[in-house]
Design brief:
OB fold (Dihydrolipoamide Acetyltransferase, E2P), 6 strands, about 110 residues, mainly beta, ligase
């Protein structure tokens, strides 16, 4: 399996790849979690479906903190609905560095407010 950068995602549609990323934000609802991810080349959406991953990993995905670093593995899909145009359907991830509670959140005073 090839390790790629986010900027190279369009070249790997429908392929399973590995990407080293940081979590910039997340939201979850029931059986799905959306992770906003970034690396040095761009931003991306990761989708974690409860049915495609172990229960333990799904719980971990819902509890990830901002700026946690990960290797995510999954299939790249083009998705016009996605803010980034592409997304990765995550079927596994490895936490490389877990962050403490990030003091700045995506609120009026957070990094997303710039």
């Amino acid at each position: 399996m090839e390790t790629i950068r986010i900027i190279d995602s369009p070249k790997h549609v429908n392929e399973i790849v590995k990407i080293g990323v940081w979590v910039t934000n997340k939201r979850s609802s029931g059986k799905i979690a959306f992770l906003q991810l970034r690396d040095g080349s761009g931003f991306f959406q990761g989708v974690v479906l409860k049915n495609n991953i172990s229960e333990e990993k799904f719980t971990q995905a819902k509890e990830l903190r901002q700026e946690t670093s990960l290797y995510v593995t999954g299939e790249i899909h083009e998705d016009k609905r996605s803010h980034f145009g592409y997304e990765i359907q995550i079927n596994d991830f490895e936490i490389v560095g877990e962050s403490e509670d990030y003091p700045i959140t995506p609120k009026e005073h957070g990094i997303d407010f710039y």
